[in-house]
Amino acid sequence: MQHGKYRFVVGFLAVPLGLYTLFVIWPFIQSIYYSFTNWTGLSPEFSMVGFDNYARMLDDDIFWKSLQHSVMFALLVPLVTLGLALFFAFMINVGGRRRRGGPAITGVRGSGFYKIVYFFPQVLSIAIVALLFQFAYNPDSGAINSLLRGIGLDSVQPLWLGDPNIALWCVMAVLVWSTVGFFVVLFSAGMASIPAELYEAALLDGANRSATFFKVTLPLLWDTVQSGWVYMGILALGAESFAVVQIMTTGPGGPDYSTTVMVLYVYQKAFRDGQAAYATTIGVALLVVTLAFAAVVMRLGRRERLEY
Amino acid sequence: MKTTDTPAAVPAESGAPVDRGGAPSGGPRKEKKEGTTLNVFSHGVLVIWAIMVGMPLVWAVMTSFKDDAAIFGSPWSLPDTLNFGNWSRAWSQAHMSDYFLNTVLVVGGSLVGTLVLGSMAAYVLARFDFPGNRFIYYLFIAGMSFPIMLALVPLFYVVDNMGLLNTIHGLILVYIAYSLPFTVFFLTGFFRTLPTSVAEAAFVDGASHTRTFFQVMLPMAKPGLISVGIFNFLGQWNQYMLPTVLNTDPDKHVLTQGLVQLAVSQGYKGDWSGLFAGLVMAMLPVLAAYIVFQRQVVQGLTAGALK
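Above: the input entities. Below: the structure tokens describing the complete assembly.
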């Protein structure tokens, strides 16, 4: 298979690699370079300013707020999402009533139905989901407050996205809502491949359901949970939090910067305020946060791999 | 293999209560009670979440048929009459038809491009030894974890300088470039699992490398291409951040942008019903496709996450 090998390799790699380098790799390298300049983005002229942008960033209160919010997005959203998903997946696969003479562990009736419905939000664009919830959160005519009025809770009418104290939680809840189903399906597939004998052995030894969950299911699913956390955290730091915050909250960025996240701040500095160089500086900080997050989760979560 | 379908391996019918699990001290009655409580409880929480997922969607569909007075007056009541006028207004006056067309063009072009270029690169990386192979592979992989927004600031000017800003083909090229990391990662793994003997046989028979790839390897890789194709289709159809930055001309807007634009402008015009019709219009095709191709979609979307 040697004949003409290199010509073939080069021929096949040239276009994809070229496109990828030009549109992905090269801009990344450029933006790190730009973070040391005073480039506005509006004119082609700029000069090197050393670490000025970084010094400015450390003094920027909005930057620190956005950093804090982004870290919350990366830690809390996956934690709640994965927790709920594990719980639902366990209920779907193990929570069923035991039928006489049936297997020791059964799923609930209609498990397929739940999996189909839960997965709905995953196929919708996060932009559409964000728009939908922007209306649902509307204090006067939104679905949530009118539902509260409907069940007699007239006194409980929060401003939701308009209240700086809860706006961030409202936005994070939307991400959780839209992603839980994906992980329910993912974990269900993982749970289905755990041999039933392991559960049966645990039940024989007198373990109750919650013990089987923590002693059997969770350890065997740990790899999937961990990579799910990294995957979800990267999304929550990047594209998904950009969409929900930019679309749902006023400003955008919420009342009193209460929902500003780093990715949105980069966008606003570059494309609204004409401070491209400063935007790339915040972007570099976002890169550091993302890589640090992935490294921490991978390291903290490292366990001996269980073969079964 | 599903746990739920697996026949019992323990002697569940042997008659000894202790074999049926549950607390060892508990007799059959206590055990049954635990099972029932758990069953009611698990069905309860599962139903609640199903309602929480379904309600907003049902609410949106209902709202899309109401007039504005009903939307504000009684958000949860069923529409009195089905106002199909909302839908036609959204389709023509609010330019939903244009947004659909733009999205179909962009996603169609970039999906084909992603699959062709991605499988070419993945095949070479999976099957050929050459200096730099590992480096190029990891270069592609690295793109999966970097925050895209960082690259978008300079990318805007790169694309602008090439005259590709606010063009459909420019957007297609960018979509392809940003879809390559996962596609290459997934397909490289897939090509490695395919047997080498078939390609070698084709090669011995005188087929060129290129021909072997297109006529032998690609057909064999069809299951992998379908999975990664669905993954990319949904990702590109639902894409919001890339077009927001690189596609600012209202005439070229894709669906997600168009809807957000619509939400802003309808707010001024007060045409909420038209906006909801637009939202539902954008939601339904994807949901319908998901229900029809449910198994493939789930497989495609979870393919990367499960080893």
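Note for the figure: The longest helix of chain B spans residues 28-63.
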